[in-house]
Amino acid sequence: MTPESPLPKPRPAVFGRGSYAESLRIGEILRKETVGGALLVAAAVIALIWANSPASESYFALRDFKIGYEPWHLELSLGAWAADGLLAVFFFLVGLELKREFVAGDLRQISKSIVPVAAAVGGVVIPALIYAAVNLYSPETLRGWAIPTATDIAFAVAVLAIIGSHLPSALRIFLLTLAVVDDLIAISIIAVFYSDNIQPGPLLLALVPLAVYTFLAQKYRRFFGTKGAAAWFILFPLGAATWALVHASGIHATVAGVLLGFAIPVIRSKASGGPAAGPGLSEIFEHRFRPISAGVAVPIFAFFSAGVAVGGWEGLGAALADPVSIGIIFGLVLGKPIGILGITWLVTKLTRAELDRSLKWIDIFGVSLLAGIGFTVSLLVAELSFGQGSAHDDHAKVGILAASLLAAILASVVLGARNRQYRAVEAEESIDSDEDGIPDVYERDSSK
């Protein structure tokens, strides 16, 4: 190279750390989800033990006990209340998180969002295709093609906590983004493919409280100042009315949760050169609802949904031999890593990008295995596909549990083997030599 030769342009890096503020926010979310994941696993284990104990009839009687007001189409079993009502809280947070990522988070930049979004799409499409291939000649079971498409972030971070993984900030952000995006894809699939007998009347009526809710949410500072409690007490009844009307319309009620989450405004701090005037409604709601979702809503849903009477070793063998279970296991355990890792590799090649220097492809593989833990939303889609308590639904649950356990074990092996490297990255990310409150690596990254 001659002195006059220009320096080669550096190749763009993917899976960078992002901003320090984003890293702190993601870390806080995952700490809450870790507790929720432990409760989720505990609830599922209790349900399985109870459903296969001599007292199993009492479990199913509790799950099928109906309560509610029939004229409003709300006389539902406790299991249905958990699936339609409590999971709406979970999907409300999905809507909040997704909007925040693309409005105020690092993913508002196309260069940073393209890889995790494309990887999430690959992690949905490939498992669905694998399930469909296994069940191609069985129209009855083919309906469950969407079961292996979702990632359970709470279960996944619980696994990370158990193995003591010091997953770097870049991989934590990637994992959360994957989970949120494919949850959005899953709820879109539910809205389009798993909604029957649509009633236009209630659906049109739902637009009224939703519109009022959206208007008040967008203008809440003008009406309520910084008093989030006042906004909460006014917005909650409007949200509940929207949920009830969407439920009556025949569209799965969890769709209302996502729409309500999208309606909440997100404030970009320092948008005009100065700090935001206090927390926005998105931050207030996220702070209040995430503990309810992670600690109450999702574990209760898991308790009512994961209980399946296996019927001993013979019954377990029959369940695992069902093409439904086979498609789910292959879709989650093989399809997820193939789709996520394959699309990520393809995007980096097409964009001539390279991994951040602190990561290797084995790290992406480990996270893609972890994404094969498809528990909460997979259980929901299984019930919508085959009907709660049906033989195929029971077999699907066995497949989901088996696949999630296998994916957790494989991911633990891969990520656990890399823990020494992760500790070194974590140590580097904690150095703050100028003591300004921001680690040096984030300052260097932001100056590039």
Task: Characterise this structure.
The protein is an all-alpha fold and 448 residues long. It has a single domain (29-195, 252-269, 279-431), classed as Up-down Bundle (Na+/H+ antiporter like fold), CATH 1.20.1530. It has helices spanning 20-51, 56-64, 78-103, 110-134, 139-142, 153-163, 169-193, 200-218, 220-224, 228-249, 254-263, 281-306, 312-321, 323-350, 361-370, 376-386, 391-417, 419-429, 440-446; strands at residues 13-14, 66-67, 76-77, 354-355. A hairpin with an 8-residue loop joins strand 2 (66-67) and strand 3 (76-77). Helix 1 packs across helix 6 (153-163) and helix 3 packs across helix 7 (169-193).
Total separate domains? 1
Quick one: how many beta strands? 4
Main sheet: strands, sense, barrel: 2 strands, parallel
- Helicity, as a percent range: over 70%
Strand content: under 5%
Average pLDDT for all residues = 81
What gross morphology would you assign? globular
Level-2 CATH architecture: Up-down Bundle
SSE arrangement:
Blueprint: E1 13-14, H1 20-51, H2 56-64, E2 66-67, E3 76-77, H3 78-103, H4 110-134, H5 139-142, H6 153-163, H7 169-193, H8 200-218, H9 220-224, H10 228-249, H11 254-263, H12 281-306, H13 312-321, H14 323-350, E4 354-355, H15 361-370, H16 376-386, H17 391-417, H18 419-429, H19 440-446
Parallel strand pairs: 1-4
Antiparallel strand pairs: 2-3
Helix pairs in contact: 1-6, 1-7, 1-12, 3-7, 3-11, 3-12, 4-7, 4-14, 8-10, 10-11, 12-16, 13-17, 14-15, 14-17, 15-17, 16-17
